[in-house]
Design a protein that fits this description.
Largest sheet: none
Distance between the termini: 14 Å
Number of helices: 9
Structural class: mainly alpha
Helix content: over 70%
Strand content: under 5%
Shape: globular
Length: about 180
Amino acid sequence: MRDLTTRELYQALEYAKSVDETGGRKILQRFQLEQPAFAQTIFGVFPQVIAEQNPDMADLFMDLCFDVICVFEKTFGPLPSQNTMGFGWLEKSAALLVTELQALMTGRPMAQKIRDKPQDRFTERLIDSNSQTGLVGFMNTAIDDFASENPVRVKATRITQTLIFTVIQLFGVMYDQATAH
C-alpha cells in the first residue's frame, strides 16, 4: 500500500469532517456490515481498554477511528468485505502486530534475542508498507492536543496513540489483502 500524499491526507480529513450525522451513520453501518469483527475490535474492545485509563480519550479514539475509515474509503475506495477476505485476516494481522509492538516496549521483560526478531520484522514492514506516517502523525497530534486540555487525560495518551497506530496499520493490511484477493 502506498503512503498518502499530504494533499490526499488533508482532502480525506476534510471529507471526514464534512460528513453529517446521517452520512456518518451510513458509513459506520456499512463498516459494521463489511467488517464486523474489525468493527467490534476498534469500536468495542479498544475503547474499553482506553476507558480504563480515561473515558474522554476513549471517546476521542472512536472519533479518530471514524476519521480513519473515511480517509481510507476516500483515498483507496470502498471497504473490503470480510466475507471476501475470510475471517482469519484480522486475527493473524493483529497477533503479528501485538508481538511486534511488545518487542518494541522496552519496559516489558523479554530476552534480547527473542526481542530482536519481531523488532526487525516490524521495522522491515514499516519500511516496506508505507505505514501512513502522515496520518499517524496527524492522529498523534490530535491525541496530544486533546490530552493537553485536561491533565487527567494525559495518562491515556500512550495507549490511545498505540491503538490508533494499530488501527491504521490494520486498515493498511486489510486493503493490501483485499487487493491480493
